Amino acid sequence: MEKERPELNGMTYFSDPRLVANGFKVRLIPGALSTERSLEVAGMADCVPFFGVADLKEIVTAVLKRNAKTVQECRPLKVVSYLEGEAVRLARQLPLHFSREDINDTLSRMKQQLGKERQTCIHGRPFFHYLKALPETEQQDVQNVLNPD
Predict the structure, then answer these.
(1) How many CB atoms lie within 10 A of CB 80?
(2) More exposed terminus of the chain, fewer Cβ within 10 Å: N or C?
(3) Which residues, other chains included, contact 133 with Cβ-Cβ below 8 Å and sequence gap of 6+?
(4) Contact 35, 46 (CB under 8 A)
């Protein structure tokens, strides 16, 4: 697992995204001998209910036994449920109708943050479904209303 540079007192924090992105801050505490080193949970996400060391164990087990390489492959079930709940909560706060400018802004931010190769959400579902070609201008929109296909 990835680690930061050791501090002056010898403590080293793990910077591995599989730990950090799942809500844990873990440090390695040196001992007089290499066999006396110990791990300590220095921080933990407080937004996930009943989140604890058992969830850290679930992450480490996924990394060691299932060879999980990405954050998604080693997410504890509690974190997945929390993120899904937050996504639903945020989606319910959105307005029912968006302006063209809002949609373009959202698409632009998605391209910047996710890149062009990412076309699915964390659940493997596509972001986009083709419904209908939209007119580029308001004039085309008016013509479509006056002269439907």
Answers:
(1) 14
(2) C
(3) none
(4) no
Q: Based on C-alpha coordinates, what's the Rg of the chain?
A: 23
Please list the alpha-helical segments (H only) found in the chain: 17-20, 53-65, 77-93, 100-114, 138-146
In the three-class reduction of DSSP (H, G, I as helix; E, B as strand; rest coil), residue 132 is classed as coil
> Which own/partner pairs from 79-84 qualify as long-range (CB within 8 Å, at least 24 positions apart)?
79/22, 79/23, 79/45, 79/48, 79/51, 79/55, 82/47, 82/48, 82/49, 83/122
Taken in order 80, 82, 86, 88, the sign of the CA dihedral is positive
Which pLDDT tens digit goes with each residue over 126-140?
A: 888 888 777 777 777
Q: How many residues does the chain have?
A: 149
Bridge partners for 19 per DSSP: none
Distance between CA 22 and CA 45 in Å, rounded? Answer: 8
Q: pLDDT, tens digit, for every residue of 35-65?
A: 778 889 999 999 998 999 999 999 999 999 9
Q: Which two tokens stand for residue 13?
A: 């924090």
